[in-house]
Specification:
By secondary structure, the chain is α+β, with helices and mostly antiparallel strands. The chain has one domain: Alpha-Beta Plaits. It contains three helices and four strands. The protein has a four-stranded antiparallel sheet, with helices on one face. The longest helix has 18 residues. 21% of the residues are buried.
Amino acid sequence: MRYAVVTKDKPDSLELRISNRDAHLNYIEQTGAVELAGPFLDDNGNMCGSLVILNVDSLQAAQDWAASDPYARAGLFETVSVQQWKKVIG
């Protein structure tokens, strides 16, 4: 099943994001659960959140993945939403 993880960064946290980016990308690669991912951008073109589409067995697995993300462990996010998602186009 697919799940969308949608996050919003805390204000003024670009440096925290950048300093944890390599660990985040390594986590994505190592877990093998990510089908699609990328950052949201603010009006200045700076990263300010994320959209990650996971392909995992359950909502709990998606929530666990999101909680273990190095960005989450670093305290980057103001909000995190995890919900089932259905691919229709693409």
